[in-house]
């Protein structure tokens, strides 16, 4: 199995930056981290897709974050990153990483952007 633990959330002013991390552990981490995604859920709203990363380096972004967010993976540390720049109040949400390959979610990390 695989376990996912997010970190790096916090509070930031609009226009600022944050980098989220999602560390994978467990016996299946290499297989399960082949295809990974970030999602977010704002208060009172459903969970929405943010970005996806494949081990080949292919990436895919939601239109709302394209050009501001960058997803990357560091295999040596079994870690997925989400670099978030030019943050706005509407980016405020709980951010979750997901193993698309294995259908496993992390517990989430809160991002709050003050306008």
Which blocks of ≥5 consecutive residues have pLDDT under 50? none
Morphology: globular
Average pLDDT confidence is: 96
Q: What class would the helix/strand composition place it in?
A: mainly beta
Order of helix and strand elements from N to C terminus = EEEHEEEEEEEE
Largest sheet geometry: 7 strands, mixed
What fraction, in percent, of the residue positions are helical? under 10%
Number of strand segments = 11
Number of helices: 1
- First-residue to last-residue Cα separation: 40 Å
> Could you tell me the strand content as a percent range?
over 45%
> Measured on Cα atoms, how large is the radius of gyration?
13 Å
A few lines on this structure:
The chain is mainly beta and 115 residues long. The protein is 3% helix and 54% strand. Strands 2, 4, 5, 6, 9, 10 and 11 form a 7-stranded mixed β-sheet that branches. A 4-stranded antiparallel β-sheet has the order 1-3-8-7, with no helix packed on it.
What does this protein look like?
By secondary structure, the chain is mainly beta. Helix content is 3%, strand content 54%. A hairpin with a 4-residue loop joins strand 5 (47-54) and strand 6 (59-61). Strands 2, 4, 5, 6, 9, 10 and 11 form a 7-stranded mixed β-sheet that branches. Strands 1-3-8-7 form a 4-stranded antiparallel β-sheet, with no helix packed on it. The N and C termini lie far apart (40 Å). It has one helix spanning 29-32, and strands at residues 3-7, 10-13, 18-25, 35-41, 47-54, 59-61, 69-74, 79-84, 93-99, 104-105, 109-114. The radius of gyration is 13 Å and the shape is globular. The protein is built from 1 helix and 11 strands, in the order E-E-E-H-E-E-E-E-E-E-E-E. The model has no long low-confidence stretch (mean pLDDT 96).
């Amino acid at each position: 199995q695989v376990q996912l633990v997010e970190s790096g959330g916090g509070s930031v002013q609009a226009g600022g930056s944050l980098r989220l991390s999602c560390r994978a552990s467990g016996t299946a981490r290499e297989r399960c981290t082949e295809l990974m995604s970030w999602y977010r859920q704002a208060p009172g709203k459903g969970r929405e897709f943010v970005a996806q990363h494949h081990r080949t380096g292919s990436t895919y972004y939601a239109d709302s974050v394209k050009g501001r967010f960058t997803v990357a993976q560091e295999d040596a540390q079994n870690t997925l990153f989400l670099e978030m720049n030019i943050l706005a109040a509407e980016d405020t949400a709980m951010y979750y990483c997901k193993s698309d390959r294995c259908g496993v979610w992390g517990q989430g990390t809160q991002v709050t952007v003050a306008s």
